[in-house]
Amino acid sequence: MIELRAGTRIWLAAGITDMRRGFHGLSAQVQTVLEQEPYSGHVFVFRGRRGDMIKLLWFDGDGLCLFQKRLERGRFIWPQAAGGTVSLSRAQLSMLLEGIDWRRPDRTWQPPMAV
């Protein structure tokens, strides 16, 4: 379980990333392409070309953590932009990791009007 501190931002790297990259390659991409600091404590999320795998890079205060997830079926929902970043909330990150469309989640139940 990742315990994110208050004020931690979650950045989605738009476009595709070479999933062969590890700590050093993704840290360099955070600095050069995203123009962020990899040791800031923020979470950086990258997606591969096929769309079934993502990697998260996060500094927890002691060292860099690299998490990877591959979906057995389906694809991770990603912005159409070729570059730049998108900021996500913790709830949106949770939906992304579950393979749910985090951009427009549908509510399955609407409360009745109280009259």
What's this entry about, in short?
The chain has 115 residues and is of the alpha+beta class.
Q: Ranges with pLDDT <50 over ≥5 residues?
A: none
SSE pattern = EHEEEEH
Shape: globular
> How many beta-strand runs?
5
Q: How many domains comprise the coordinates?
A: 1
Q: What profile does the largest beta sheet have?
A: 5 strands, mixed
The percentage of residues in β strands lies in 15-25%
Helix content: 10-25%
Strand order of the largest sheet: 4-3-2-1-5
Q: What is the radius of gyration computed over CA atoms, rounded to a whole number of angstroms?
A: 16 Å
Ends distance: 43 Å
Secondary structural class: alpha+beta
Primary descriptors:
alpha+beta, single chain, 115 residues, 2 helices, five-stranded mixed beta sheet
Can you tell me about this structure?
There is one protein chain. A five-stranded mixed β-sheet has the order 4-3-2-1-5. It has one domain (10-97). It is globular. The chain is of the alpha+beta class and 115 residues long. The mean pLDDT is 87. The longest helix has 10 residues, at 23-32. It is built from two helices and five strands.
What's the arrangement of secondary structure elements?
Layout (H helix, E strand, L loop, with lengths): L9 E4 L9 H10 L10 E5 L5 E7 L4 E7 L14 E4 L1 H8 L18
Parallel strand pairs: 1-2
Antiparallel strand pairs: 1-5, 2-3, 3-4
